[in-house]
Specification:
heterodimer, A: 107 residues, mainly beta, four-stranded antiparallel sheet, B: 123 residues, seven-stranded mixed sheet, 11 strands
Chain lengths: 107, 123
């Protein structure tokens, strides 16, 4: 199985900050990497697919990038509604696997 | 607007079978998508269970494969999950989701999700 290691596991930030979350794959996955946002008691919401493509309806302050097997989700100018848990998700091979999640809370 | 809705018992006895259905509205389950199940134990992360195509082709997580069956009913526009021989560790919120195929530009991402169904395994 491909392991997805997210870092950090949690972070505290203020409104207006730029936040960066990293996900490292245990082997090559090309751009088969997606990012989701999950709020308490809610289903995950797709933010980014194929490493850097913004899902329709998602604010442009969210962006994704790739460098080899390292993937980054960046939230520019953090908004109050962005405090949530974020997961990466590889679909390069089966079984599909998720990172362990990064919780973003208010400083 | 596509909507998915899970349904099924919220309590299952140990060694029993967990059965959930996912009804799809606002679109045909026979379209060129895969349909997935993902679960989340309380306070923990997401685990992929498996997926099915409208033709009936399935992919399962090997860690659950011996206990899992995913089926599809195109006439009722729904797909289902059966997980047998359940134990307490199977207690989780179970989500169904629409899955773009990995050979599309969406690379297998999950764009529409159900609200989730909490299933507790307990006697």
């Amino acid at each position: 199985d491909i392991q997805m290691t997210q870092s950090p596991s949690s972070l505290s930030a203020s409104v207006g900050d730029t936040v960066t979350i990293t996900c490292r794959a245990s082997q090559r996955i090309n751009t088969y990497l997606n990012w989701y946002q999950q709020k308490p008691g809610k289903a995950p919401r797709l933010l980014i697919y194929a490493a850097s493509s913004l899902q329709s309806g998602v604010p442009s302050r969210f962006s994704g990038s790739r460098s080899g097997t390292d993937f980054t989700l960046t939230i520019s100018s953090l908004q109050p509604e962005d405090f949530a848990t974020y997961y990466c998700h590889q679909t390069y091979s089966s079984p599909r696997t998720f990172g362990q999640g990064t919780k973003v809370d208010i400083k | 607007q596509v909507q998915l809705q899970e349904s099924g018992p919220g309590l299952v006895k140990p060694s029993g079978t967990l059965s959930l259905a996912c009804g799809v509205s606002g679109g045909s389950i026979s379209s060129n998508y895969w349909w997935s199940w993902v679960r989340q134990p309380p306070g923990k992360g997401l685990e992929w269970i498996g997926e099915i195509y409208h033709s009936g082709t399935t992919n399962y997580n090997p860690s659950l494969k011996s206990r899992v069956t995913i089926s599809i009913d195109n006439s009722r526009n729904q797909f289902s999950l059966n997980l047998g021989s359940v134990i307490a560790a199977d207690t989780a919120v179970y989500y169904c989701a629409r899955n773009w195929g990995v050979d599309t530009v969406m690379v297998g991402s999950l764009d529409y999700w159900g609200q989730g169904a909490l299933v507790t395994v307990s006697s």
